[in-house]
Specification:
Blueprint (H helix, E strand, L loop, with lengths): L1 E5 L9 H6 L4 E4 L12 H12 L9 E6 L5 H6 L4 H16 L4 E4 L11 E5 L5 E5 L1 H11 L11 H12 L3 H12 L12 H9 L6 H22 L2 E4 L18 H10 L5 E6 H5 L6 H8 L3 E6 L1 E4 L6 E4 L8 H12 L9 E4 L19 H17 L16
Parallel strand pairs: 1-2, 1-12, 2-3, 3-4, 4-7, 7-8, 8-9, 9-12
Antiparallel strand pairs: 5-6, 6-11, 10-11
Length: 405
């Protein structure tokens, strides 16, 4: 397995030298500056690859191994194969990535909102801060700030009363903060930042789209792009929904083992793979992560290793330290190692420490929410320690992925 690190580009607070210092060898990145739906040209991709992979004298080399993500434009999610122009543009970006020798692409199919949190700096018992999704606060936003038509049908009478009390206790700053956290695109999101009126309008576009229709649209998208991915030598990895349940009356179709099985049955090509995100999948108690590795192991090309702790209301959770949450990270890594040992050289699983607590000096700095350097460094060190203890230390040194020009 190879140690990846999410890097948001040359303007990110974390530098490439700092990526080297934490021990990562592989960079997970994207052209975040390109508007959603616009084609990534080969020149754009190669320029970013060269920035990452041109090693200064005396420095350890880095490899851009995973693109996370080429955003899926909204018309594809709503219209499937009918959004032919958007699909062709996405394939053109995929071709540029493949021509540049990057062989893993992560993407998601979450409608309107990408990953969602109600708090970005929830104070833990150590004084470090974490990201949190609190169901009661979410309901207060949905019912009383967004004022989504029909939202009351998604909540019990008791939940509506609790949400009303929670909303009435918010001052203007708290109301603005939760609206910003939910409606503004979080780092790495593949959806656009929205105003509250714009949010309501976007939801209207999805009227009549249920889980069956959204899944059909994803399958139509995959039917169109998988042959291209096969020809470019690129593996596609679908990120799970986060949180892994419906939000705002919208369907979610990558939340459970059955969801992934349906997609793999519909599009059986081996390039149709998954991003195994323990944080997203682990937020549901009914997801058997180790069982999913056994079932879908050959389709896992990329892993997000993160832990969560479910709260008294199991729909609420906060991001715990990597070894302290509800997910057995040792058991997960054992399963990933067993799969990784079957891989030929150049096709080992890339993993990254997903998110991290804001702690130590990062509490005094401007950091990318969810992606502070020190908390992720702690997570990577813990994961690396497990791999060593299990007798499968991560690969180090330069890599030449299969097909890299």
């Amino acid at each position: 397995m190879r140690q990846g690190w999410r890097w948001f580009g040359p303007d990110a607070p974390v530098t490439l030298d700092e990526v080297r210092q934490v021990g990562a060898t592989d960079v997970v990145s994207a052209l975040h500056e390109v508007p959603i739906g616009e084609v990534w040209t080969r020149g754009m991709v190669e320029a970013r690859r060269n920035l990452i992979e041109t090693t200064p004298p005396g420095r350890a080399p880095l490899s851009w191994s995973v693109v996370e993500s080429i955003p899926i434009p909204d018309p594809i999610k709503r219209r499937g194969a009918e959004a032919s122009a958007e699909i062709e543009a996405w394939i053109a970006s995929l071709e540029s990535v493949g021509q540049a020798g990057i062989k893993i692409v992560c993407y998601n199919f979450m409608p309107v909102v990408d990953w969602c949190r109600t708090e970005l700096d929830y104070v833990t018992d150590t004084g470090a801060t974490a990201m949190r999704f609190e169901f009661e606060a979410f309901a207060a936003f949905d019912l009383h700030i967004l004022q989504r038509p029909g939202a009351e049908r998604d909540y019990s009478e008791q939940e509506r009363l609790q949400a009303r009390a929670r909303y009435e206790a918010m001052d203007a700053a708290a109301e603005a903060e939760i609206a910003r956290n939910i409606a503004s695109a979080l780092p790495g999101s593949t959806t656009e930042s929205m105003t509250i009126p714009g949010f309501r309008e976007k939801l209207k576009d999805y009227r009549g789209i249920d889980s069956a229709r959204l899944r059909r649209n994803l399958i139509e998208f995959l039917a169109a792009v998988v042959p291209a991915a096969e020809s470019f030598g690129v593996k596609l990895t679908l990120h799970p929904d986060d949180p892994p349940r419906p939000l705002f009356g919208l369907p979610r179709i990558a939340s459970t083992e059955d969801d992934y099985a349906a997609l793999f049955d519909a599009v059986p090509s081996p390039v149709n793979g998954m991003c195994f995100c323990t944080g997203s999948l682990g937020a549901r108690a009914d997801n058997d992560l180790e069982g999913m590795i056994r079932r879908f192991g050959p389709r896992i090309y990329f892993a997000h290793l993160r832990n969560t702790r479910r709260e008294a209301d199991p729909r609420s959770f906060h991001e715990s330290a990597h070894l302290d949450g509800d997910t057995d990270m040792v058991g997960v890594l054992k399963g990933l190692i067993q799969e990784d040992l079957k891989r030929p050289p150049g096709e080992t699983i890339v993993f990254r420490p997903d998110h991290g607590h804001r702690m130590l000096d990062d509490l005094r700095k401007t950091v990318t929410p969810g992606y502070p350097a020190i908390g992720r460094m702690r997570g990577l060190a813990e994961l690396r320690g497990i791999l060593h203890a299990l007798g499968h230390p991560p690969e180090v040194g330069p890599v030449q992925p299969l097909g890299r020009a």
